């Protein structure tokens, strides 16, 4: 009997956390926050200015997580405290998400602060969530279990998003005044969903019973272990090259997740069209993430990651030139087919490169690269949009010219992400594990 059957309760407890926190990723990060931020909290700003602000807050929060992830991962390894750190970060994010409900119109600074803390809680908890993967799955099943987590995340996030969308379309049926109130109520629902379903990983997943050192000893030991791990990563060529590759291509993936709705708004698409497209991503992503896990079992995880990168290159090119909402729906379906797969297989493939007993600190570096990626991508998009707009704007533009220039700037901003996928694929080409063939 393999470990998947022996440890089924722990596997489901671990995977359900993706169901829990994906509500934040889907409804807050990818869905409603960009819309509410642009039209409610930052309603007086130009569309490109609000895009730059959104990029700034995403990047700033990601920088904080990137700086602390390896250290807290090493500390958690020293004290066998990955689950405890996960729960602490998770409920920090839950509290910040609930606070979004009370922030008033035009208070974009407070909205950015609460959103940033939410991202820190979400991303920080994922450091330890990823590290716990090796506690619940063995090498034979790790691709499937990783895919199961992402699949449940798509399904759970999609279901709550569907409820939230219905609330915004017919708010009176729920006793609400209007769509704006329904949208902000959705933030409270996310907090309850995330906090409630996080209890499964808290009670069903266990860690080894190591003797926990005092807090001071754990921190000092964590610092020493962090420095030691950094030196080891520099010497472990496959890990080093993979982290660079991952930093680049996952930057493109994360930026599309966080900025796609804002991009659609810049092109003049309606909020309803964008949210329906996001729903499509969720429900296509559920079976697709499971399918990628199965595909990796006979076609190798590394080849499947290359497939995902290639698909994203085509998606970026198509998005640059699209003109209709029908195309946006097709692009959403395409993203749903590959997004969960490339994320899940990157996580499980990395586990084959690292020592399992030091997963916390190594996944701390892994998440650090992902967070640094999330710093560069939104700034790249926002910066390209602002520079292009300034370059193309004539001395006395008409309102029609400003709209056209804004859309052109948005297209150039999304096109800039192609560079990240191509260079990431180049670095991944040189990564090998002992299980990989000599050719990609």
Structural notes for this entry:
The protein is 82% helix and 0% strand. The chain contains 16 helices and no strands. The chain has one domain: Up-down Bundle (Growth Hormone, Chain: A). The radius of gyration is 21 Å and the shape is globular.
Contiguous runs where pLDDT drops below 50 for at least 5 residues: none
Question: Under the CATH scheme, which class?
Answer: Mainly Alpha
Q: What would you give as the CATH superfamily?
A: MFS general substrate transporter like domains
Q: How many DSSP E strands? A: 0
Largest sheet, if any?
none
CATH topology category name: Growth Hormone, Chain: A
User: Rg to the nearest angstrom?
Assistant: 21 Å
Task: Give average pLDDT, whole number.
Answer: 82
Entry summary:
Helix content is 82%, strand content 0%. The protein has 16 helices and no strands.
Element layout with pairings:
Elements: H1 3-6, H2 8-41, H3 47-79, H4 82-99, H5 108-131, H6 133-136, H7 142-169, H8 179-204, H9 215-235, H10 237-266, H11 271-299, H12 301-321, H13 325-351, H14 359-392, H15 399-415, H16 418-429
Helix pairs in contact: 2-5, 2-7, 2-8, 2-10, 2-11, 3-5, 3-9, 3-10, 3-14, 4-5, 4-8, 5-14, 7-8, 7-11, 7-13, 10-13, 10-14, 10-16, 11-12, 11-13, 12-13, 12-15, 12-16, 14-15
């Amino acid at each position: 009997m393999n470990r998947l059957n022996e440890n089924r309760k722990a596997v489901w407890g671990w995977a359900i956390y993706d169901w829990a926190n994906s509500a934040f990723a889907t409804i807050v990060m990818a869905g409603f926050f960009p819309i509410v931020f642009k039209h409610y909290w930052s309603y007086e700003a130009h569309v490109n200015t609000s895009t730059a602000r959104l990029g700034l807050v995403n990047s700033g929060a990601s920088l904080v997580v990137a700086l602390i992830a390896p250290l807290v991962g090493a500390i958690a390894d020293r004290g066998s405290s990955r689950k405890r750190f996960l729960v602490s970060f998770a409920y920090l994010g839950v509290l910040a998400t609930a606070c979004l409900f009370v922030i008033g119109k035009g208070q974009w600074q407070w909205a950015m602060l609460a959103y940033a803390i939410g991202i820190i809680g979400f991303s920080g908890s994922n450091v330890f969530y990823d590290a716990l993967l090796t506690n619940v799955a063995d090498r034979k099943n790790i691709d499937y279990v990783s895919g199961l987590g992402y699949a449940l995340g798509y399904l759970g996030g999609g279901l709550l998003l569907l409820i939230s969308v219905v609330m915004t379309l017919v708010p009176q049926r729920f006793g609400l005044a209007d769509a704006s109130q329904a949208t902000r109520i959705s933030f409270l629902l996310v907090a309850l969903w995330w906090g409630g379903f996080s209890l499964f990983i808290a009670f069903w997943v266990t860690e080894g019973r190591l003797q926990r050192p005092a807090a001071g000893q754990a921190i000092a030991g964590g610092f020493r272990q962090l420095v030691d791990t950094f030196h080891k990563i520099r010497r472990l060529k496959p890990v080093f090259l993979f982290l660079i590759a991952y930093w680049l291509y996952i930057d493109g993936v994360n930026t599309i997740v966080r900025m796609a709705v804002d991009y659609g708004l810049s092109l003049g698409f309606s909020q309803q069209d964008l949210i329906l497209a996001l729903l499509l991503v969720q429900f296509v992503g559920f079976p697709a993430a499971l399918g990628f896990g199965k595909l990796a079992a006979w076609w190798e995880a590394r080849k499947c990651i290359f497939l995902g990168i290639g698909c994203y290159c085509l998606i970026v090119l198509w998005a640059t030139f699209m003109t209709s909402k029908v195309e946006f729906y097709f692009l959403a379906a395409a993203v749903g087919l590959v997004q969960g797969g490339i994320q899940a297989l990157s996580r499980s493939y990395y586990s084959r490169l690292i020592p399992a007993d030091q997963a916390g600190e190594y996944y701390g570096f892994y998440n650090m690269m992902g967070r640094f990626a999330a710093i560069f991508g939104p700034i790249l998009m926002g910066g390209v949009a602002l520079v292009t707009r300034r370059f193309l704007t004539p001395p006395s533009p008409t309102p029609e010219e400003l709209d056209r220039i804004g859309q052109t700037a948005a297209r150039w901003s999304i096109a800039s992400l192609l560079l990240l996928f191509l260079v990431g694929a180049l670095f991944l080409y040189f990564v090998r594990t002992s299980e990989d063939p000599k050719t990609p």
